[in-house]
Amino acid sequence: MEGSGRGFAVIYRWTVAEEHQEAFRARWRKATLRLRELGSLGSCLTREAGGDFVAIALWPSEEARAAAFAGAGLDEPWPPAERFEETRLQIEDDLWSGSPFLSHG
Fold it and tell me: pTM of the prediction?
């Protein structure tokens, strides 16, 4: 996917059994904070109506994401969860309040 110069987002989705949800959220927070140290613009973990966790992560570029994951040392196992294929998105028109990409438009 060719960059637009306006940022990059990835949507992740997991199904997690109720007994593993607290551990999953703690592991997600730990990974997200580590990736922020390495260039991520952060992520928001949400829950859809059916109970699946959905996270939207923001990155300055695909290259920044690849470099962060390569250096993150995220080998610690995750609680049991079914992970669905991620969705990669180029930012086109960004109207989020407080968005880290607003100054790039």
Answer: 0.82
- Residue 78 forms part of a structural domain: yes
For the chain, the first-to-last Cα distance in angstroms comes to: 19
- Residue 77, domain CATH: 3.30.70.100
Total of domains in the chain:
1
Residue 105 lies in a domain: no
Print pLDDT tens along the chain (105 aa).
444 567 899 999 999 999 999 999 999 999 999 999 999 999 999 999 999 999 999 999 999 999 998 988 888 888 999 999 999 999 888 777 766 665 544
91: CB partners within 8 A, 6+ apart: 4, 6, 7, 8, 9, 101
Domain span at residue 37 reads 8-91
Residues with Cβ within 8 Å of residue 32, at least 6 apart in sequence: 40, 42, 43, 45, 55, 57
